[in-house]
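Thread: quick sanity check before group meeting

JM: Hey all, I'm pulling together slides for Thursday and realized we never actually wrote out the predicted structure for the chain we discussed last week. Dropping the sequence here so it's in one place. If anyone has concerns about the input, flag it before I start.
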Amino acid sequence: MKVHSLFLFLFFVSIGFLHAQQPAQHTFTLGHSDFLLNGKPFQIISGEMHYTRIPRAAWRSRMEMAKAMGLNTISTYVFWNEQEPEPGHFDFTGNRDIAAFVRMAQQEGLWVIIRPSPYICAEWEFGGYPYWLQNIPGLVVRSREAHYMQAYQTYIKAVGQQLAPLQINHGGNILMVQVENEYGSYSNDTTYLGMNRDLFRKAGFDGILYTCDPANVIQKGNLPGLLAAVNGLDDPHKAKQLIRSVNNGKGPYFISEWYPGWFDWWGAPHHTVGAEASATRLDSVLAAGISINMYMFHGGTTRGFMNGANYKDGTPYEPEISSYDYDAPLDEAGNPTKKYYLFRSVIQKYLPKGETLPPVPASKKAIATSWVRFIAAEDLMDALPSPITSRSPLTFEQLHQAYGFVLYHTMLDGGMKGILKINQLRDYALLFINGKKIGTLDRRLGQDSMEVTLPQGKVRLDILVENLGRINFGPYLLHNHKGITHQVLFQGKKLTTWKMYRLPFSSEPTVSANDKLLITGQPVLRKGVLMLSKVGDTYLDMHDWGKGCVWVNGHNLGRYWSVGPQQTVYVPVEWLHKGANRIEVLELNKPEQTRLRGIDHPILNKLQ
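JM (edit): ok, ran it. Output follows.
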């Protein structure tokens, strides 16, 4: 009997333990005018933050900051070109582990809104699309075209395997999932939107689906039967009226993108949005019982080569900067701003009875560093891989290269003077004659040609082309090839017989030469050591440098460019350690520059 009783006791204890380990079961539904969490009205107070723009080791600290400001939800896009960088090759590891991001939010008591669209805009390369879609003949993004829908289905199925089990109706914390993204700004094909919905359902997203669009196109972008949300409209009366007009006279009311900040692009002034005015507008929205998602709560950094660009007829090409600080409540390094505290004071007024906000975590202190000690340098032209040859220049896509640089090389007869023209340059080129730099061409400035004088004899022409970011919004999504996309002309005649050297820099460069003061006028790779006796966030001061990108301990931190407005590159403390830290710099325009150090503040508002 004693053994039997002990067995029953242990059995019931184990059942109780297992029950305690199960996440609480919740319901989330649409009421006539409110969202209903467990049958009771629930106001979503959400902030956007992207897992890819934050070091994984910092995800939790950013979430703690979100809770302390009063957010009950966070929202994120899912980035197709990060999750499937090459056809059929899916990566949900490291900083791409979206499921881990969602589960961590649940541990922190936060709900999540997921936006796997697959088009995201987001000031992100190609609006989130992988470059290789352009290599599929006939494929047309954001359309019913069969090749696109097949690739889309494969992607969303893989995302569903990661995230569908984490929906609230399966015991997780995902409240809603967004279908497409501001589609009304692009077209109005409800059949296409219906196909989107069906793909999401087949992928396992069986909870609440919604669409989001700016106010002036919400009728075009909504699919009947799905919740319609509005972007960029923070007048409570107008927002409710508009949403009712689309949702059959009902709510719930959701402002799915509210902009308390804005993004920047190279060569244009830094953008800010007033903190006090933003707090007043937030107050009016919350007082009206409207749910809201602020874009962005925390922007972070667009590292590597993943920034997008804007372009439309009659305007310049505008590649976005690496900093995605966004003038957001939480700055690029994850510290609270004046805007953060003003928003916190507003949100406190609308907390459910009996709830209080946790204290705000302490801000991190940034550090100034000693000078980087450069120990080696190498001409980029001396670090070339084997070439690919072709009669005509090939695009990045034809070379099966997503990002970075391509060096185009050909020989021509000298002793002549004339106009050298690159038809449809995408996007920035350095030109060299017999190894000597003769100038640059910049798509931002509408430059595609220059007058050159060729010396006598056979002449070597090298053109180093940088992909500055594929367009992320508008009709030119369909015209996003990179490199030399047509032909090169000299004196009106097409140049042929090209060698192309792929330089994607998909990992940190290896600098093998030992001449640390190497200065030849060509782009240079420099290797250095940053010694630290203590660690902290820092900002590499690049304002005396020209143009390029920088790696720290193997992490590509993004681009720098003297044109501004960004003059510093943020280095997160999570990627530094005491002692020697590896630094590599690719400098295109000022190869003589050798002085570099970290400072304790960002410079995001200086044009040169």
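AS: nice. The chain has three domains: 40-348, 373-378+509-599, 384-503. The domain at 373-378+509-599 is CATH 2.60.120.260 (Jelly Rolls).
JM: adding both to the slides.
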